[in-house]
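Worked example 3. Consider a protein that binds copper (II) ion.
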Amino acid sequence: MALKRRFLGPVAQVGASCFTALFQVGALAAEAPSREAGSLTAASTPLAYFLHSKGPAARPVIYLGWALATICVLVCVIIAGMLLIGMFRRRKQQDARALVSEGGLRLVYVGSVLSTIALFGIAVYMLSVLAEVADPPKTPGLTVTVTAYDWWWKADYGDGETHFSTANELHIPSGVPVLVLLKSADVIHAFWVPELAGKTQTVPGTTNRQWIQADRPGIFRGQCAQYCGVQHAHMAFEVYAQPQADYDRWYAAQMSAATAPSTSQSMRGSKLFEERCAGCHTVRGSKAAGVQAPDLTHVLARRLLAAGTVVNTPENLIDWVQHAQELKPGTLMPDMKLSPAEAGDLSAYLATLK
Ligand code: HEC
Ligand SMILES: [Cu+2]
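Given these inputs, the predicted complex is written out as structure tokens:
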């Protein structure tokens, strides 16, 4: 009875750890196939980066992850095996000195030396991966400045005449290394597109650098990876890797100013926008020039709203404007109180921001 109890405790513990490890690997392997969205593949499941890397900055990191996971599983299995052997070949008498006199400490020495060698090897491997992903293989073809805000991302492209700003979306040409300059407007955040590169923090007052490159066109989910406040989880973004020609078209469209509203309803909406929203938001080509919030010049061209909180449909758009605090409690945009007529006018105006 006593033997059974002494035996079952450790076995259950070791078994549980091994099971957890295997279960995690299994769950990753069972990842759902990615959906097709036009010519682009929709962002895949959150942990897919453990199975696939989609660019050269992420590849060495994924191999490192596999190597470390393998070592962890091996250690778990070996320790469990030795524990089982130890339990079955247990001494009759509990005499601690017997361990020394019978040379039982030998295994402890061997184990210590082996773990030291393994840990040292892992450290060297990790440092070499860091060096490998530090710089792109060739000069970046594009530089984008990304600024993290509580709780969204601003992306600035070009400069001077060609400058424009967008939010929560990065478009890049596929197959080209892109340098991302990372800034923060408030607290420390971290820029992370798992399938394309490791995490890099955005630190107020500093400009950090991270390069990304997508092998093929696709949509890659990104996420703030440093806890930054209540809506940290709703601080996502997407990277759209496109063939060069598509990217150029997107760039030209984004660079243009908004077209002036032409119907009387959208004109009323535009006036409302200037009164109620322009303190925070910019629409290039109008009087609205606020800087504390996403540039809305081409808000309709975005797939998601409010850093991945909702899909960008006309209903969600006006719902967000009126109930931002319900959809994303604590967000720095207040609920805008609008009469049904005002909501209609504003919707008509927002529908022109293609
Ligand atoms: C006090 C400043 C402020 C005012 C006023 C304001 N907003 Fe916002 N707005 C924000 C902030 C900050 C965000 C980013 C919120 C987030 O993602 O957490 C935002 C986000 C948005 C978004 C989502 C943009 C995107 O790309 O995800 C839309 C659309 C929007 N606002 C429309 C409006 C409209 C229309 C008005 C006026 C009726 C308005 N806002 C008034 C601060 C403001
Ligand atoms: Cu953040």
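Take a moment to read the result before moving on. The chain has a mean pLDDT of 87. The chain has eight helices and 14 strands.
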